[in-house]
């Protein structure tokens, strides 16, 4: 019998790692196969060696044993038209995920994040086999992001940090720093109401767009 | 080892049955113990024999083997003050649920539904052991209700109908009619994207207020 | 004296029929002339004979004696830029409608529906002669659609079904099925508070974007 | 054959006059009988002779030949409980309106306005004979008020001013001044897109909470 | 010439300290006189020595040299009626603040926080001399709180911690812990886009309800 | 020491003048240097001599001694992609504003206004030196625009009118009329709670997207 699949659909290499690699690790531990779809190669980043990002993404995916597909849309210029819809739909048909994770398409997010978050959410809603559609924390500022679902990633935080550390070309970006990542994860632990008792806990946070109870397995 | 518990907190007898008894049955099938808290006895209903409702509620709870507690707040005059908070908190402390279901407190709902839905949601958020807080479909008109979580209750629809049929004193109310209940459940099946292929399917729908992933058991 | 005009502005052939042909029939019965504008020919549908849709649209429009214009924008790739604005504006100038019906541009709708709904609404607001701007029910899932205006189409449901039946190329799509259409119309009847008394009633539902009271004729 | 009825449900004497007396006059001109329900007598106003307000309300109602009922709830302390619900419901049963006008219950409104607007809207939605439920402009600051429906009251502005002038005890309040009332009415004319051509036009503005198309008479 | 005044209106002793004492210290440094109004004495807290809170509040206010008034409404049972409105209005008339800080009245907040935040905001909006109305961070979970205004309190964080340390009776509550307070202040620094460069920065966050530019002094 | 800078980022010549030239004048009076960025030349306006608009913009900017840059994007066809982001970012890097003013990107605004308002807001949020990001009143209809910040421009209204009068090619547009501009400014004065006492006051209104307290200078 084949494994259930979790699919992360994001705009650039590093987006999935920041938003959901802790949850991804937790899903793998529960028997899920993992797949990451990046719509662009992230080449238009501000950093000098941005051409390295697809390669770094491959290293990061390997940390969790996840499949990685990097599409060739132009970084920074995605539009919510038929071509992007079709491409995302093809992947969803191919891997038949039961869980889809994507961007929270808030009004102040990066233009590509808005496009990918909106399209991936719409497409995933239409697929009857997708039982859970989650939108992850924005990498910069949280703005209107008001999550309902929280994942305890305390047991997986090291893997998340290891995956992020693969992005050497982005080492100078504030949101990639180890301390920033840990601070955020502690904030969401607190928002989730996780009791600390001295030992810090780490969480990821998501807006729930669609959930089917039997898939969730309550 | 003790069973996990699902707790339904609603304003009047019949509210829980309408909003979540299909999901309750599904939870029981997965090993949950069930508890229903009704804040009032429903005595101020428009129907002649409204005094029968607590007794009818007992019959309905028995259909699913659920515990039932009917509090003595006055039907129609609940306020979101300390007394109601404390009472709901006591029940949550007593039964220690991992799942809490309550009213969707929309702006056009019955005044008691707004109070109970708001207070139960707030209290359940604060309890670290509650992993899932859901707000159910309004019994009258859906208004701004925009659910994210859908439960397949096809296998349990008969139990839900049986429980509702216990409310003989309310048999003339439109939203208690068998056909109304089935129509609604089919509508949510369609909204959930459930494929029909000729065989009708039945769903319940909920707004997700809080979800902790390990409790959901993905 | 010329008739008042109702104009439906939608993205693809079949959109207008699904969202508002019952209301359209009701308007015709009250003396309105009807006009349908479809921005694309629907050629990129998933069905085999999608090239037939403009022809089918013509048959459907004929059921109500409505004028039909099918523009040649590419199905699936509409953008909210000057060209689409100008084209919709031209039609509004030409037919001078007092009622405009269009898509509800919700965040999870088909990309073309979002574009057409947004642009048609904006343009119609600016025209002083348009007294009513309505956004109709999404064909797939209702999501955040929260209608305020409900039309009783019980007397016109057969015409709506007849128009939809013209789309033979789409006969396999779930939302085109006779039973789906009737279920939806019954749901909105219930949301509108229509009393049944045994006889089923059928309604269409709309978000009100603009209404001028004298035009509404209260 | 009896006339259709329009009912205004507001918290204090002067609220209905400010929010909807132009529209009320327009409805009378179209054959409606008018009824005003004020839940309190406005006795806790800041002005010296606030005890005069019920009497002034009677004079104002007489300007339009409207029925007036002043209930005896305490000004400033209304709560959305059973007693207020029942009282409003009684009036709606008694006069059987097809149009109900009430407060916009925005988050920064006077506490009584929030209670009356919420309860009257909820009760009016449940009544199948009510075809139009409108929430009127707040008397102080507009805040989040985003109206969809605009009434041309140019022909009735004098009657509205005459009714407001009956409130001599409130002559010093800024929002009762003739110029303030005209300024507001011109603002809504502009928001409604009314073309001026030199001659000023006057409008009232409403949020549409419920509309049934046959009642609107398109 | 008299000093400008900043007034904090909150429900319980400790609420003002948590939400805005850093900003309060910054305002004092810019020449503001400070006043704190607590509507209740916090006696119904879960802690054993809750009767000590008014005394602790006095010590905390003294840290910033702020005036303190503790009203005698019952903790947990505030209602948005005339009495609470009048009491808050009296204080605003008495101290004539140009800045008012209060609770963010979000839907999942403590019932008293909702009441005080709503009433204080409404009253402060009506006072022409109030140039800035801010709603502070909820003490428990942030929920839908989406602030626009951020204050750099790095230079004042020690005073904030010192004031909170006065509440010995609440020393066991998680949100009163020094580390929790610092974590939150670092989170808001990051949300404000404050550059770190190794040195941690501390911020408080507020929803802006009203701002008059000359008062802000741009 | 160099002056602080206020930057207005809008889509077409005349947009900045309508939305914020009163506030701009107030900022200049407080020592700010002013810069206006117009993304297009406004050539696709409905008026005959629309080619004059960049020249008219230069005259208008001169009224306040503001720098003006007119970019060459095509009027009516802006898209929220990388090119527009980069261009706006370049200007923000070049002039290093502490205040940024732009469009309110409401759902019914001109397509270009939505694009520029969204992109300028996002970019300005990311710049640590920007302490205030404001979105100005739409030129046509206010729709969902719910401002929090109000500027008293009574002392500057003549300069605003003088700048608008430079747009001779648009003299026939209703929203450019002197009386319309004054009416709007009086409306916002009233919404701001400005007391009149016979002398009319004039205000501009803004949604606050970001504010840092030390920059605001309270």
Keywords:
GlcNAc_PI_deacetylase-related (chains A, B, C, D, E, F); alpha/beta; GlcNAc-PI de-N-acetylase (chains A, B, C, D, E, F); globular; 7 strands; Rossmann fold; homohexamer
What does this structure look like?
- The structure is a homohexamer of 218-residue chains.
- With 218 residues, chain A is α/β, with parallel strands linked by helices.
- The first copy, chain A, has a single domain, classed as LmbE-like (Rossmann fold, 3-Layer(aba) Sandwich), CATH 3.40.50.10320.
- Chain A has a seven-stranded mixed sheet, sandwiched between helices.
- The interface between A and C is medium-sized, with 14 and 15 residues.
Please give a quick description of this structure.
Chains A, B, C, D, E, F: Pfam families: PIG-L. Chain A is α/β, with parallel strands linked by helices and 218 residues long.
């Amino acid at each position: 019998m084949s494994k259930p699949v979790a699919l992360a659909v994001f705009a650039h290499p590093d987006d999935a790692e920041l938003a959901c690699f802790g949850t991804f690790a937790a899903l793998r531990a529960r028997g899920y196969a993992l797949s990451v779809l990046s719509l662009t190669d992230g080449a238009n980043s501000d950093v000098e060696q941005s051409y390295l990002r697809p390669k770094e993404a491959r290293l990061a995916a390997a940390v969790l044993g996840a499949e990685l597909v990097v599409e060739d849309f132009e970084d920074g210029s995605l539009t919510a038209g038929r071509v992007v819809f079709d491409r995302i739909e093809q992947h969803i048909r191919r891997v038949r995920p039961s869980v889809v994770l994507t961007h929270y398409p808030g009004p102040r997010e990066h233009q590509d994040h808005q496009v990918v978050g909106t399209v991936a959410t719409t497409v995933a809603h239409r697929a009857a086999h997708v039982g859970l559609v989650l939108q992850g924390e924005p990498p910069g500022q949280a703005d209107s992001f008001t999550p309902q679902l929280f994942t305890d990633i305390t047991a997986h935080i090291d893997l998340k940090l290891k995956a992020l550390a693969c992005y050497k070309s982005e080492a100078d970006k504030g949101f990639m720093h180890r301390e920033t990542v840990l601070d955020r994860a502690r904030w969401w632990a607190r928002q989730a109401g996780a009791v600390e008792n001295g030992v810090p806990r780490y969480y990821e946070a998501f807006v729930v767009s669609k959930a089917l109870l039997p898939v969730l397995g309550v």
